[in-house]
Prior knowledge:
The chain is α/β, with parallel strands linked by helices.
Amino acid sequence: MTSVEIDTPHGPARAELHCAEEGRAALLLGHGAGGGTAAPDLVAATRAATGSGVHVALVEQPYRVAGRKAPAPAKQLDAAWQAVADDLGDRWFAELPLIFGGRSSGARVACRTAEAGQAAAVLCLAFPVHPPGKPEKSRLGELDAVEVPALVVQGERDAFGQPEPAQDREVVLVAGDHSLKADVDAVHRATEEWLGRMLRLFG
């Protein structure tokens, strides 16, 4: 594991690199709004990816690196993420397909930046379709805007809602709530199986 600091327009971000033996793609994973990169589902996805031949970068947003708990505005999150993706794509993962991903807020960032960042695929862990109890405040448009293959791993009892499968979008329901802590093995299996198919698709 290697930790690198990366300058962004909103302060330094940090990336924790977990390299596969023979990496054929790279997966960038962002954390949730109030949590860090040690979340159980992010750890499970990292293990699944490196075991499948995919490098992983666990990306810590500048507000977390600076010690702040409150998340930055969406535009700042997206700009910082894009700066990290550009840097890692040039310095560490040159000529490899980049998969954007993350949990909760990090999944939203991955969706919003997928097109501009030329992501080859998107992995969403616990995508927050709407705030709890407020289905009228849907964020489904962010997910629907993704035009590359996407996987959403969602807890069956997630108070943030359930997205529907769509063209190029798979949804896997696992036991538990928004934390995805109840069955991390299921998160691992879903990620591993999907990544295997993505690697075949990438050639």
